[in-house]
Amino acid sequence: MNLKTTPSNVSVRLENMGVIMRIKYISEVRSQCVIDIRPFSSVDGLDAVKGIGPTYLQSIKDEGIACVG
Fold first, then answer.
1. Is residue 18 part of a domain?
2. DSSP letter string, 14-26
3. What's phi and psi for 33, nearest 5 deg?
């Protein structure tokens, strides 16, 4: 799902490290990994970040603020 980035949405494709860390389970280390493996075509691409498996990915999606915008 592609959503326009708003204050309540965090684009994993566009945002900087500090903003990406607003996503549940995305620490400083993981946010740098997100930046390093860009671009993303969907939030599901976060499963390529070390430490984000199916359970964390589902929690991130359930949180509803991660998007690709």
1. yes
2. T--HHHHTTSTT-
3. -65, -40
pTM of the complete model? 0.83
pLDDT in tens, 3-56: 554 557 999 999 999 999 999 999 999 999 999 999 999 999 999 999 999 999
| CATH code: domain of residue 56 | 1.10.150.320
* Whether 60 contacts 25, CB under 8 Å: yes
Residue 4: the pLDDT is: 52
Rounded-to-integer distance, Cα 33 and Cα 8, Å: 22
Distance CA(58)–CA(15), nearest Å, equals 21
- Within a domain: 2: no
